[in-house]
Specification:
By secondary structure, the chain is mostly helical. It has one domain: ABC transporter involved in vitamin B12 uptake, BtuC (Orthogonal Bundle). Helix content is 81%, strand content 0%. Helix 2 runs antiparallel to helix 13 and helix 12 packs parallel to helix 14. The model has no long low-confidence stretch (mean pLDDT 88).
């Protein structure tokens, strides 16, 4: 058993992949808790796909992919916030229009490259085993910034998530906090780009948090459970990828999904088995 655990650690790229999976496994579920509580899953999915044009432009210009993703991600987050705030269109309609247009733009730009199929697969499903030391440093800094911001504004984010009207009553800067949460979501998506890719991003944001919501109703405990599930999914997914020779991003997501299904069935008090016993 010990040899089974130690063998992959002989390879530097596996160690880097594990570190990246752990960092993403913490930050994604933590902010994903707010996504689950606020019913923002579609918005999270949209932002994950909207960053594609920024990634492709950075790729074509030879810039760091995270730079293009971060620029368009933050811009799109603020734009969606402004568009939905004016309520000219229903929120899901406005997000759907922006999502379809920008994702199509990204695919069109990518099709202009000579290696369309391979590049699209890389962007959509991630390349966890290709994480470099520079990627790790950037991931750590961005993840630390997101987690510190959430820690500093934990109570304020909790209020706007559970009762926006109370936030107004307490004279909290509700609008600023809502925009800031969108920006943090965009940054988190950029952090996760290389680990699970655009197509599977929503799973790491929502699945561990949804699983944690079946285990506890307390927000802080939910974040801890979600992060623990995210880390377990990331590490286990890397090992499965190594031994079964399967894509690392989908492996991570499949583990998270398996944990959700088991929790949905067996969770104390809220699982199917418990309710029918």
């Amino acid at each position: 058993m010990l040899d089974w655990l130690q063998e992959p650690l002989q390879y530097a790229f596996i160690v880097r992949a594990l570190l990246a999976a752990i960092m993403v496994g913490i930050v994604c579920p933590v902010i994903g808790t707010y996504i689950v509580l606020r019913g923002m899953a579609f918005l999270g999915d949209a932002l994950a796909h909207i960053i594609l044009p920024g990634v492709v432009v950075a790729y074509l210009l030879g810039w760091p992919l995270a730079l293009g993703a971060l620029a368009i991600g933050i811009g799109a987050a603020i734009g969606i916030g402004a568009l939905t705030e004016r309520r000219v269109l229903k929120e899901d309609t406005a997000i759907g229009v922006i999502l379809a247009g920008l994702f199509a733009l990204g695919v069109a730009l990518l099709s202009a490259t000579g290696n369309y199929a391979v590049d699209l697969t890389h962007f959509l499903f991630g390349n966890l085993l290709g994480v470099t030391a520079a990627d790790l440093r950037l991931t750590f800094l961005l993840a630390l910034a997101v987690l510190l911001t959430i820690g500093l504004l934990f109570k304020e984010f909790m209020v706007i998530s559970f009762d926006p009207m109370l936030a107004i009553t307490l004279r909290l800067p509700e609008r600023f906090l809502r925009y800031l949460l969108l920006v943090l979501l965009a940054v988190t998506i950029v952090i996760s780009l290389q680990v699970v890719g655009i197509a599977l991003m929503l799973a790491m944001l929502v699945t561990p948090a949804a699983t944690a919501s079946l285990l506890t109703r307390r927000l802080r405990a939910m974040m801890v459970w979600a992060a623990a599930i995210g880390v377990f999914s990331g590490v286990t997914g890397v090992y499965l990828s190594f031994y079964l020779d399967i894509a690392s991003g989908p492996a991570v997501v499949l583990v998270a999904t398996a944990v959700f299904i088991l929790t949905f069935i067996f969770a104390p008090h809220r699982g199917i088995v418990w309710q029918h016993s």
